[in-house]
Every structure is written in C-alpha cells, then in structure tokens.
Amino acid sequence: MRGVVAALLDRVPDRVPRTHARFFDVANACACAAWIVLARDALREKRSARARRFVVDGAVATLCAAYAWLFVACVAKGVDARASFGSLAGVRALFERDDALLAGWLHFLAFDARVADWLIDEERARGVPRMCTACVTLPLTFACGPVGYAWSACARKVLARETRRR
C-alpha cells in the first residue's frame, strides 16, 4: 500500500505547491476568503447563496482535499511508534513532522469555517442580532472553536427574539 501511495504522490505535477510553507500560505488564503464571506454574510440581512456556495464551500472543500492528501502522505511515510492519542507525549509525537502539523492546521481551518457557517444560520433562525454574530460568535469560533460554539449556544437561548416569517 505504501508503495502505491508513494508512486501516486511522485506523479503530482511540480506546479502543485510541494513545500509545507507554500501549502500553509495557500491554505490560509483559502480560509481568509471564506472568513471574509462569513463575516459579510453575518452582517447582511440575507445571506448570499452564490458567494457562500462558491467561496465558503469551495474553500472548505479545498482545505478538506488538501487535508486528505496530506493525511495519506503522512501515513505513507510511516507513523512514529511513539505517536498516539493516549497521552500528551503521544500527541506531541504525532505533530513533530511538518506535514502532520500542517494536516492538523488544515483540519482546524476547515472544521472551524464549517462550524461558523452553520452557527450563522442557527443564530439567524433564532433571531440573535447580526452584530453579535459577526463581532462575537465568529471571532470566538475562529480563535477558540469550542468557546465560540458554547457562546453561540448561550446566545441562541438568551439573545433570541421572535423572528417574523415573511
């Protein structure tokens, strides 16, 4: 299996970003575009379906594909025997290599953008003020994912107001 994956990875064209730093820059640009659309949509009365589908979904799909590619590349190179999810030292060993660290970063970017997209819809459906979503929920979700999610759950209970159906 490793030989097949290695052979496939060797066939990737040179124009595809191969260095981890370049991959990191491209991933951050994708995520930045998604977060700009998310912030804009959070402030608007009506979300832009086209921008959301093209930019947010496109960025998340790109990040997920890059994550999957890096994950396969990491597994193909072999995993450190010390690496595990059973201890802090084991998790540290998982992320000692740049490719594994980058895969973890891509996972973070994709997951937080998708959760933020969902939270905008949830808060909007429950009447949470748009400024609260844009200025509190989104920054907290980006910087501290679970804290943003917890904040949103509270905001949906406490700040919710009757929404008018049109």
Overview of the structural elements:
This protein is mostly helical. The chain has one domain (2-120). 75% of the residues lie in helices and 0% in strands. The protein has 7 helices and no strands. Helix 2 (20-43) packs antiparallel against helix 3 and helix 5 packs parallel to helix 7 (145-158). Mean pLDDT is 85; it is low at 13-17.
Can you tag this structure with a few keywords?
166 residues; mainly alpha; globular
Largest sheet: none
Secondary structure tally: strands: 0
Helices and strands, in order, run as: HHHHHHH
Give the overall silhouette.
Answer: globular
What oligomeric state best describes the polypeptide chains here? Answer: single chain
Care to give the gist of this entry?
The chain is built from 7 helices and no strands. With 166 residues, it is mostly helical.
List the topology elements.
Elements lengths: L1 H9 L9 H24 L5 H29 L10 H7 L3 H28 L4 H14 L1 H14 L8
Helix pairs in contact: 1-3, 2-3, 2-5, 2-6, 3-5, 5-6, 5-7, 6-7
